[in-house]
Amino acid sequence: MFFESLDVTTIVDWAVKHHTPDSALWMFVAEKDQSQLPRLLQALKQVNIQCFGGTFMSLIVGQETFEHGCAVARLDLWRSPFIVQNLQRTDFSLEHLPLRNELPENCTLVVLADADSLYLAEFLTKLYHRFGNRVQYFGGGTGVLDAKTDLQKQCTFTTEHGMAANAAILALISQPGVVAAHHGWERLHGPLLATRSEGNILYELNWQPAFEVYRQVVEAQINRPLHPEDLGGRISCGFPLGMLKQGVEDIVRLPSAVTEGGGMVCIGGIQANSVVHILQGQPESVIQAANNTLAFCKSQISSPPNSNIIVDCVTRYWFLEDLGATELATIQQSLANLEGSPMIGALFKGEIASNGCSSLEILNKSLAIGSFM
User: Fold this and answer.
1) Residues 292 and 343 occupy one common structural domain
2) Of 1, 83, 82, 6, whose CA–CA distance to 44 is shortest?
3) pLDDT 10s per residue in the chain (373 long)?
4) In this structure, are 297 and 274 located in the same domain?
5) Under 8 Å CB-to-CB from 246, ≥6 apart: which residues?
């Protein structure tokens, strides 16, 4: 369901009409309407309706993107959503979460995390150690690029806990689901060694300031100077970094800012001693990766989905330019042939899609699809 504005009365009336005892609302809220979110959460709380979600630069509804409004999926949950806070510190805790053997099998854990959290990668590692392959994982990084105000930074929310920064929301979907993701980016330069990193900052590659190594390679491709302020924008979005992982695609990281001393901020972080390549994308290979994601999901869907969720990377969408809209149209049409509900989602700052059989990572520059029957 899509609401063109965050009209509290309209959304609450719809939520009450479609509510069931086990359901909750997964909400994608446009950042430009975020100021109305506290009123909406309070109104939903008064009528005992659970919701969880995040705020984003743009929403996806069918084949279109919107910078205003709210997209909503109604899903059945095992319990009320959980929140993990203080991801800007190393002493965040998961002790209030259920144990692995307490979780039902064959469910999907939605993970919505503030993408700018300093210790996001450490959180995902600890989360995987706690739940392992008991569940599959789906979601991504919330928030807008270059968030400046306190309101913009409060990019995750639930009915019970309100809005929060440096936090992750966890919601266990109890209905059957299929998730998949691919990126299609190819190696341009490397291998390099991440010789010093901390949190989400990569300080050194091959014992040299990371930005200096990155700049030399990228400037040779774009035939112009690369300035620190170019990171995270349209110029650099075609040249992410890739961490080597055995048996899977490289884990993509996009440098978004330069620190004093020449380090680079990367959403999700790059662990020290990781083998890294500088990657390059071609529109054809990136779109083919999305087609592979779609084909896998369709092959696993056993009945018409009642929710199709798309998690697309905002800088990936920028990179594709006009082809991004064409790609969404193709995916929407293909999913519509399954006689399921329309596709909704958002442009995320990092994506999560894992069947639980490998380590849990925040992805970048990827497209993920989740279909729930």
Assistant:
1) yes
2) 6
3) 999 999 999 999 999 999 999 999 999 999 999 999 999 999 999 999 999 999 999 999 988 999 999 999 999 999 999 999 999 999 999 999 999 999 998 899 999 999 999 999 899 999 999 999 999 999 999 999 888 899 999 999 999 999 999 999 999 999 999 998 888 889 999 999 999 999 899 999 999 999 999 999 999 999 999 999 998 777 778 899 999 987 778 899 989 899 999 999 998 889 999 999 999 988 888 888 888 888 888 888 878 888 899 999 988 888 888 888 888 888 887 777 766 677 899 999 989 998 777 778 888 888 899 999 8
4) no
5) none
Q: Look up residue 232 and give its DSSP letter.
A: T
Asked whether residue 261 falls in the same domain as residue 146, the answer is: no
Helix (H) or strand (E) holding 315: helix 314-320
Query: Pairing state of beta strands 307-313 and 343-348?
Result: parallel
b/e map 307-320, b = 16+ CB within 10 Å: bbbbbbbbbbbebb
Domain that holds residue 198: 186-280
Boundary (domain end) residue, out of 219, 253, 280: 280
Judgement on whether residues 24 and 105 belong to the same structural domain of the protein: yes
Same domain, 197 and 345: no
User: What domain count does the chain have?
Assistant: 2
Q: Are residues 123 and 61 in the same domain?
A: yes
| Among the listed residues 277, 278, 308, 276, the one whose alpha carbon sits nearest the alpha carbon of residue 293 | 308
Residue 102, helix vs strand vs coil: helix
What's this model's pTM, rounded to 2 decimal places?
0.90
58/205 same-domain check = no
Same domain, 292 and 190: no
